[in-house]
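mind reviewing both lines:
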Amino acid sequence: MRPEAATLMLEVVGLECRRGDRRLFSGLGLTLEAGTLLHVRGRNGSGKTTLLRTLCGLFAPDAGEVRWRGESIRDLGDEYRRDLLYFGHLNGIKGELTGIENLAIAATLDGDRVATADIWTALERIGLAGFEDLPTRMLSQGQKKRVALARLMLSRAKLWVLDEPFTALDVDAVSLLQGLIAGHVAGGGLTVLTTHQEVPLTSGQVARLDLGS
C-alpha cells in the first residue's frame, strides 16, 4: 500500500465503459480523499449508473481500473466489499420480511454486528415508528425506500455509493438523508452519488464529475 493511501481512498484510472457498441466514457480518471462527497452529474444515458456500478465492482470496465486505498478492487475482493455500501435503483427489500428482518439480514451480509435495539432505533429515526414489524410489501414505495436507507445508520462502511437516493422521499426524509451524508463525510467517510434533485448536499468538501459533457 502506498504511503498516501491513508487519505487517498478511491482512484479511477483510465476507465472506459461501453454499452453495446456505444462508448459511454473513456480515459476517465479521478482521485478522492477521505472526507469527500463526489456528485456525479449528466443527462440520462450518459453512464452515471454504469460508473457507480463499476466503482462497486458490479460492472467490469472495458479498460482501466478502480483502486481502493492504493489497491485494485479486483485484488481486494471481499476486503473492499466490507468497506462499501451500495444503494441502487432497486431497494433490495424483500416484501415478505419486516423492516427489522430486512435490516438484520443486510447487516449480516455487510459483515456488521448490529444489535436488534439499534435496528429499531434506526427505523424510528427514519420515520417508520409503528411499521417496524410489518411485512414490507404492505408499505408504500417511499416507506420501503426508508427501510433501505436505514442501512446507512447501521453500516460501518467507509464508502457509500448512492444512486438517486432522494427519489420517492418526502421533505423530512430528504433532510434526514442529507444529514446522514454530511455526517458520514465529516467523519472521514467518502460518498459518491447521483441525484436529479436540487438539494444542498453537504457543507464539506464536494467534488463534481460531469459525464457526457
Remarks:
- The beta strands are 8-19, 22-33, 36-41, 63-68, 71-72, 84-87, 159-163, 190-194, 205-210.
- Helices lie at 48-55, 73-76, 78-82, 99-110, 116-125, 141-149, 151-154, 171-186.
- The longest strand covers residues 8-19.
